[in-house]
Write a structure and sequence with these properties.
Layout: H1 2-92, H2 117-120, E1 129-134, H3 141-152, E2 156-161, E3 170-174, H4 180-190, E4 196-198, E5 210-214
Helix pairs in contact: 3-4
């Protein structure tokens, strides 16, 4: 009986020891398990923070690039607008004439008469008789002027010596009915070689319409 009691006591003791050992092991396992989970959570949190930081950096770079593009566009548009405005202002500059008011009672200037073809038409000089006189004594001067007058269109030309060789100026005389345009044409031809002055009018009984006395100058 005592042996059986001892066996029962030893079984109970062993059972108690086993029950105490098992909770200790499970406690160790449960105590170690939270530390591993916490480490993984920390790592995941760090990864999330890194991703967030990276996302923020990308957003910053994108924002800077976008603002830079806007700034460049604004500057380019401003320069283009300025240059366009300068070119337009140059093209639009016009000179506005300043009109001076006319005092009351002042007659307005009349328009200049139009030049008609008849006014500029060369007169017919072929009918006029021209007498060329040598008043300087130089040989051949009358013949030279005769040639010049013939080139100018005169047809009836005679040459002779003047009553004296003491003439200094070259004189042109004409009848009163000879048009001024004809005498002016003769003066124009003579002025290439001589200093021309007006002489006395010829009498109506004269055989010539125009008389030229060639002087020394």
């Amino acid at each position: 009986m005592e042996k059986e009691k001892l066996k029962r006591k030893s079984k109970r003791h062993v059972k108690a020891i086993v029950e105490e050992t098992v909770p200790l092991e499970s406690a160790v396992e449960t105590s170690e398990q939270p530390h591993g989970i916490i480490g993984e959570e920390v790592k995941k949190e760090e990864i999330r923070e890194a991703e967030k930081e990276q996302g923020k950096n990308v957003l910053k770079l994108f924002t800077i690039a976008f603002l830079s593009m806007i700034f460049v566009a604004i500057v380019t548009g401003g320069v283009y607008t300025y240059l366009s405005g300068v070119s337009l202002s140059k093209n639009e500059i016009k000179i506005t004439p300043v009109l001076t008011p006319t005092p009351p009672g002042t007659p307005e200037p009349s328009a200049a008469p139009e030049t008609t073809p008849e006014a500029t038409k060369k007169p017919d000089i072929t009918p006029y008789k021209v007498n060329v006189l040598n008043g300087s004594g130089k040989i051949g001067v009358a013949s030279q002027i005769k040639t010049d007058l013939a080139t100018g269109g005169f047809k009836k030309i005679t040459t002779n010596n003047a009553n004296s060789f003491d003439y200094q100026e070259t004189l042109v005389s004409a009848k009163e009915n000879v048009p001024e345009t004809v005498t002016n044409l003769i003066k124009e031809i003579l002025s290439k070689k001589y200093t021309v002055a007006d002489g006395e009018s010829l009498k109506e009984s004269s055989s010539f319409d125009i008389e030229i006395i060639l002087g020394l100058k």
